[in-house]
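Re: [ENG-882] Designed sequences occasionally contain unexpected residues at chain ends

Forwarding the minimal case from QA. Structure tokens:
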């Protein structure tokens, strides 16, 4: 799957990593619902770091459709709330 981090670019990520990422996504969803800004910031950073760690960056000139779009590291709690679905940022 191809994941885009807004403002950074894309990485190719194996579907097998979705379970691990969904744990962080569930935490992020709970923190956005509770409005816990400090916890939200920590978990968003951890989620994006994990995507960068597990994924392989695509070249800047690659034009592949993104299967998943994640917010930038400096996204606000309100911006992320607008991106959330019932099951978070990551389906599953």
């Amino acid at each position: 799957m191809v994941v885009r981090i807004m403002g950074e670019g894309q990485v190719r990520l194996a579907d097998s990593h979705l379970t691990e990422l969904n744990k962080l996504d569930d935490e992020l969803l709970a923190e956005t619902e509770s409005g816990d800004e400090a916890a939200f910031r920590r978990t968003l950073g951890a989620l994006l770091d994990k995507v960068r760690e597990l994924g392989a960056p695509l070249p800047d000139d690659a034009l592949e459709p993104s299967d998943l779009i994640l917010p930038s590291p400096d996204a606000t709690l309100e911006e992320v709330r607008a991106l959330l679905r019932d099951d978070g940022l990551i389906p599953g």
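QA comment: On inspection the terminal residues look reasonable. The two ends are 14 Å apart (CA to CA). Proposing we downgrade this to a documentation issue.
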